[in-house]
Amino acid sequence: MDGKVPPIDGASEIANLGTADCYDFLQEGVDAVDEMAGFTPLVDDWELRQDDSAARLVISEEIKEAAAAFWKKHG
To answer: Which of 1, 8, 27, 30 is 20 to 30 A from residue 53's alpha carbon, by CA?
Structure first.
């Protein structure tokens, strides 16, 4: 991960891919889709914390860690 995409943008894209529609297209199985959908709470939390830059910084780090773990497992 080169950091060129803001964490929230990447998390939003991953969460959007982790929808029910994705089950038919992934060959890895349901686990990968469920893990992608797991980014949704992070995105929701980010959106709720509009006035809290410190919380957003923490959420950004959580997103980076989750993305790195996902990439390590499925990349």
So the answer is: 1
The answer to whether 36 and 70 have CB atoms below 8 angstroms apart is: yes
Do 1 and 22 contact (CB within 8 A), yes or no?
no
Would you say residue 3 has pLDDT above 90?
Answer: no
For the chain, the residue count is 75
pLDDT digit string, tens, across residues 6-43? 999 999 988 887 776 666 666 555 677 788 888 999 99
> Residue 21 is part of which domain span?
7-74
- List all residues 6 or more positions away from 8 whose beta carbon is below 8 Å from its beta carbon: 43, 46, 56, 59, 60, 63
Task: Tell the residue number behind the tokens 């990349």, with chain if given.
Answer: 75
23: CB partners within 8 A, 6+ apart: 30, 33
Q: How many domains does the chain have?
A: 1
